[in-house]
From TrEMBL:
Belongs to the cytochrome P450 family. Its cofactor is heme. GO terms for cellular component: endoplasmic reticulum membrane. It is a peripheral membrane protein. One of its GO terms (molecular function) is heme binding. This is Cytochrome P450. Keywords: Endoplasmic reticulum, Heme, Iron, Membrane, Metal-binding, Microsome, Monooxygenase, Oxidoreductase. InterPro entries: Cyt_P450, Cyt_P450_CS, Cyt_P450_E_grp-I, Cyt_P450_sf, Insect_CytP450_Detox. It comes from Homalodisca liturata. Gene3D superfamilies: Cytochrome P450. Heme binds at C217. It is found in: Endoplasmic reticulum membrane; Microsome membrane. It comes from the Eukaryota.
């Protein structure tokens, strides 16, 4: 499908303001020798930060922006922004269903903003601040990323110990252990969206659901938008409660890499009367 779309764009000359057009523009720049993509021999420096020099200054390898590469890149973004959203979305709806006050507050925010904008649009979703807090708290407790892998760039002695991490050593940072540390989050098991008032998905040394540093999840904004749209549209039309089929407390599958409830998350949805 993507290759057929590429062929259509190139033959018709149609240009749109989307991801595919950006990739095609880079493909044309590379074809016209206006863009350097990478060296044939990659150093650590070139991998971390690609240099854009003239072709005469660099020994270039094979072209990067081929049709196969563009197809794979688009698939990667769509996958990263859709499949992994199922986990935080499911747990967010679960927490909303069993916290009536939170559900009411989200619904009031959504209805007020929909009235303000006269419908659903991107700007409306951007103003749903409390819903953002709910999503962040969900990602703190039910985190999709199990760990972050980092390479030590220079010797570092762990404070209060004799342990020295030498340069080149890889360190696994357990995300859930940090997110559930009572030192950083008092009563960490409690679902409290107000922890993230004013945060707006800012990563820190204690909160990194999408990773951290210059290579955070490329589909982060898309994934968050998808989750917001699903929750807002659902609560606008339905009232949610937890089904009796969902045992409490939740029983997680210890063999699963990501948070997975053995019996599944079952909710009841009752359609609401709304004149908005």
């Amino acid at each position: 499908f993507t290759k057929a779309l590429i062929k259509c764009r190139e033959q018709s000359g149609i240009e749109r303001t989307d991801l595919l057009q950006l990739m095609l523009t880079l493909k044309n720049k590379e074809k016209n020798r206006d863009l350097i993509t990478h060296n044939s021999e990659r150093t650590e420096e070139s991998v971390n930060q690609l240099k854009y020099n003239s072709y005469s200054e660099l020994n270039c390898g094979e072209k990067l922006f081929t049709d196969d590469y563009i197809t794979a890149h688009i698939f990667n973004i769509l996958y990263g922004g859709t499949i992994p959203t199922a986990t935080p979305l499911s747990f967010a709806l679960f927490e909303i269903a069993r916290n009536e006050s939170i559900q009411k507050r989200i619904r009031e925010e959504v209805e007020a903003i929909v009235i303000k904008y006269g419908g659903w649009n991107y700007s409306a979703f951007q103003e749903m601040v409390y819903l953002d807090q709910v999503i962040q708290e969900t990602m703190r407790i039910y985190n999709y990323s199990t760990f972050l892998l980092r390479s030590v760039t220079k010797p570092y002695k762990l404070p209060g110990t004799d342990i020295v991490l030498e340069k080149g050593v890889f360190v696994n940072i357990p995300v859930s252990a940090v997110h559930m540390d009572p030192h950083y989050y008092p009563s960490p098991e409690k679902f409290d969206p107000d922890r993230f008032a004013g945060n707006n998905y800012k990563t820190s040394a204690t909160f990194f659901p999408f990773g951290n540093g210059p290579r955070t999840c490329i589909a982060m904004r898309f994934a968050v938008l998808v989750i917001k749209v699903c929750i807002a549209r659902t609560l606008f039309r339905y009232s949610l409660t937890v089904s009796e089929k969902t045992p409490l407390p939740l029983r997680f599958d210890i063999n699963a890499i990501f948070p997975k409830v053995k019996e599944g998350l079952w909710l009841n949805a009752v359609e609401r009367d709304t004149n908005i």
